[in-house]
Amino acid sequence: MKLIEIINGTLLGDGCIKFDNYRYSKYFCYKLTSKDKILTEWLKGLFQKFKIDNSWIVQDNKILDTFAFYFYINNCPYKNFITLHKRWYKKEKLNGKFRKIVPINLKLTPTTLLFWYLGDGSLIRRRNDDNRVPTIVLATNSFSKNNVILLIRKLKELNLNFYPVEYTSGFTGKKCGYCLYSNIEDGTPFRFFKLIGLYCPKEIANCSTGSKGIYHEEKFFKDKWPTEEDWIKILSNIKEVGPILREKRLQLNLSQNQFAKIIGIRRENIRNVELCKRHFSVKSFRKILKALNLDIMYLLERLSKDLSLQIGG
């Protein structure tokens, strides 16, 4: 984990760099706002590990009850950070204001992706639909359409497939930019969480992210990560589960025909899944897990380990 990766991730989300002229000198200040003070304290501790000691936390907005973490870039040990404002902001010709942009040479690392998701990501679950895979949403409505396309391309380089959806403000009801939605049928949600971590960082798991959504329920950072029920839906779309299911079936001394009769599906479907040619529906996958007495969290850990070994060598 590198400090620049953390900063890049937060700048894709709620982070910003403030710029001021003072006595013929340029001063740059990094700022990140949060609904929960514990998050800013965690971030401050994280930055201190990188020798950023000139930071502070203040209440940013008393009405909204938000907090902000700051540090002066000019006084930090990393002199190359002075160029961050130039990389991330472009001055508008009409009004002279600075607008945040996505650097063309930005590298999306797992750390950058994690802090982007912590700041501006969410996991959308459909109520009253037990068979729909949850969707990962990354807010990009502050960026131009060209920047959104650039981010889609950079996500694609990580084998993560997202598509843009026009964003409608919950305050004004007007369309304002785009959000990125994950493809839920090609394993993108699993690969996404495998990159950023299968579990929410424990230090901030119970930190509030505010009351969001149409139901105005208070949400926490741990809600951004899948529950066991979510993992059942997500892993049902992973073809790589096939060999593990076959291994478990053989341990129970069941033929494909016997197993097909037990769960009530065609033998050909089981054969194709075990050969990684297709995946089960969520409904059928539930029956498979029950018939094999297979714990979803065990399956998740096995998948993560097995795929890591394949990638590594």
Describe the structure in your own words:
The protein has helices at 3-12, 37-48, 84-88, 110-120, 145-156, 188-196, 228-235, 242-251, 256-263, 267-274, 282-291, 296-312, and strands spanning 16-22, 25-34, 55-61, 66-72, 89-91, 98-100, 121-124, 135-139, 162-168, 175-182, 208-212, 217-220. It is of the alpha+beta class. It has 3 domains: 3-100, Endonuclease I-creI, CATH 3.10.28.10; 110-226, Homing endonucleases (Endonuclease I-creI); 234-312, Orthogonal Bundle (434 Repressor (Amino-terminal Domain)). It has a 4-stranded antiparallel sheet with strand order 1-2-4-3. The chain has a 4-stranded antiparallel sheet with strand order 7-8-10-9. The longest helix has 17 residues, at 296-312. The model is unreliable at 308-313 (pLDDT under 50).
Brief descriptors of the model:
313 residues, alpha+beta, Endonuclease I-creI, 3 domains, 4-stranded antiparallel beta sheet, 38% helix, disordered C terminus
CATH topology (fold) name of the largest domain: Endonuclease I-creI
Looking at the structure, what is the overall shape?
Answer: elongated
What is the spatial order of strands in the main beta sheet? 1-2-4-3
Structural class by SSE content: alpha+beta
Distance between the termini: 22 Å
- Largest β sheet strand count, sense and barrel closure: 4 strands, antiparallel
Weakly predicted, low-confidence segments: 308-313
Oligomer: single chain
| Secondary structure: helix percent | 25-40%
CATH top level label of the largest domain: Alpha Beta
How many separate helices? 12
Query: What value does the Rg take, in angstroms?
Result: 23 Å
Count of the domains? 3
- Find the count of extended strands (DSSP E, 2+ residues): 12
CATH homologous group name of the largest domain = Homing endonucleases
Mean pLDDT: 89
Proportion of residues in extended strands = 15-25%
